[in-house]
Fold this protein.
Amino acid sequence: MGNPEIVLKGRLDGKQRNKLKSLFNMMYSPKELSDEIGIKIDQIYTVYVPLGCPQKRDERNHLLINGKEFSKWYSEVYVKIHLMPNETFCKTCKKGVAIQNPKEKKKGNLVYILSTCPNCGRGLTKILSAKRGENDK
Ligand SMILES: [Zn+2]
């Protein structure tokens, strides 16, 4: 609780990562790119540019980013974290850890599991999925 979450700064959620895949091999302005992915424009200037994402300057010194190159760069920098079904990601330990003393919670259609990291004791949340549709079959 209260740990600053600086470690995974700039990591995109699943929906945003899907948007990354549909970026074109063309130059985007930071505004266009952030709109496409669904992030704040600040995230490009304060996180990705300092991290060295692919970038060019036009003749008026405006920042331009190639969509396809950015997508490739993102997947290399933010290496995909593979989790086992019985694991959840701990941002303090920076790895998947076993789910311990799970408590299943529900919020509308959203089902999630609260647990505690066995290494550092941090409170963890794992979203299982919005279970919509499963009962509709
Ligand atoms: Zn931990």
Remarks:
- Residues 90, 92-93, 97, 117, 119-120, 122 surround zinc ion (CB under 6 Å).
